[in-house]
Design goal:
alpha+beta, 5-stranded antiparallel beta sheet, 5 strands
Length: 98
Amino acid sequence: MNNQEILDNAPEGATLYAEFIQSNLNTYAQKWGDEFRFWDAELNEWAFDGWWLQSSAKANFRSMSDIKRIAELESERESQKQASKWAQSAQEQARSFK
């Protein structure tokens, strides 16, 4: 999933996104006291146990606020690229009228 898809699919209350390195499984997480709760998509609820605990895979945790900011920057960059293409096209059209 790209950053925007991660945000679009996040359950309410998600503060982290966990990417399990060796198993190619991903889920959302919340810091809950000294522990983490993970999103169980099958049960559609937060849980303390599940497949992620049976997995021996290590996880990379990404902050949802960081993901949100990166998605915003990606969107801005795409808008700037489009504006640049339009400006270049307009310049080329202007040159063709000379």
